[in-house]
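Duplicate of #3305? Posting structure anyway:
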């Protein structure tokens, strides 16, 4: 069977190299807002991180987790779990700062403060801090301060981590947390179900925009958050990728796609503004 598949692939590669390329589906998993969102209890945070890391291991995923610097103190046990498993940590500023709200120098100071906290974690693991993700995906594109921050990032050897698949998981999570708090079992199941539907739609949207702008399915980068709902359903999310023919790659590998500039941004600027925030149907209670 394997030989037959190999023969068919060789034939396709020989005669239709573009078609084989088109069949390639690859995605990098990125997880923002470490150590955790909307979760105050430390044991809860630890367990959720553990669960997510076990699922990443199950699918042999090397992900990148973006850390909020001011949440690092007291959480070294959580971050050690990430680093011991060979997962990557990136900078997400010190205070989850919004570039739309501050000037460039205030923002840069926040990046430096974030780096200070994260580098303390990395020091024992022979790792360096190389990725940056803009909180709220507010990149200041085409603005003077945006250019200034980009220049700063470049000078300090950061690569910007863009996003191509954005399922707005944080919104589903905020409903999920409410339903979890009031122990509404049916509601929780309903939210998980519509969240998984949204994941599927987001992947389809990303592929369609990718074909439209690049004439092929580029190496995709999904944005998820370290939250309760992903703690529950990440296994199903990753399984859906596998069922759809995706393999998991590192952020570094994804950024080797010519669709991204050496600084890590998509070469076609308009693509960075999508997908628009979807009209999400409010979950039906009970
Ligand atoms: Zn964030």
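Output from current build:
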């Amino acid at each position: 069977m394997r030989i037959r598949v190999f023969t068919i692939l060789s034939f396709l590669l020989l005669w239709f190299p573009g078609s084989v390329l088109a069949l390639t589906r690859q995605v990098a998993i990125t997880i923002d807002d470490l150590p955790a969102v909307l979760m105050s209890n430390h044991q809860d945070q630890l367990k959720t991180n553990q669960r997510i890391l076990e699922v990443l291991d199950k699918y042999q995923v090397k992900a990148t987790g973006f850390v909020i610097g001011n949440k690092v103190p007291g959480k070294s046990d959580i971050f050690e779990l990430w680093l011991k498993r060979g997962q990557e940590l990136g900078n997400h500023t010190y205070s989850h700062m919004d570039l739309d709200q501050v000037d460039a120098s205030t923002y840069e100071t926040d990046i430096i403060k974030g780096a200070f906290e994260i580098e303390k974690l990395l020091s024992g693991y022979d790792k360096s801090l190389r990725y940056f993700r803009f909180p709220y995906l507010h990149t200041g594109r085409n603005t003077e301060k945006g250019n200034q921050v980009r220049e700063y990032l470049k000078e300090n050897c950061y690569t910007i981590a863009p996003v191509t698949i954005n399922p707005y998981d944080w919104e589903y999570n905020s409903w999920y947390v409410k339903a979890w708090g009031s122990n509404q079992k049916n509601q929780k199941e309903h939210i998980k179900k519509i969240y998984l539907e949204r994941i599927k739609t987001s992947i389809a949207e990303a592929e369609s925009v990718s074909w439209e702008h690049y004439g092929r399915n580029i190496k995709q980068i999904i944005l998820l958050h370290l939250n309760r709902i992903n703690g529950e359903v990440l296994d199903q999310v990753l399984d859906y990728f596998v069922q759809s023919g995706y393999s998991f790659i590192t952020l570094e590998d994804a950024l080797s796609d010519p669709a991204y500039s050496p600084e890590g941004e998509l070469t076609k600027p308009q693509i960075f503004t999508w997908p628009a925030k979807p009209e999400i149907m409010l979950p039906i209670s009970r």
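Confirmed duplicate; merging threads. DSSP finds ten helices and seven strands in the chain. Residues 32-33, 92, 96, 135 surround zinc ion (CB under 6 Å).
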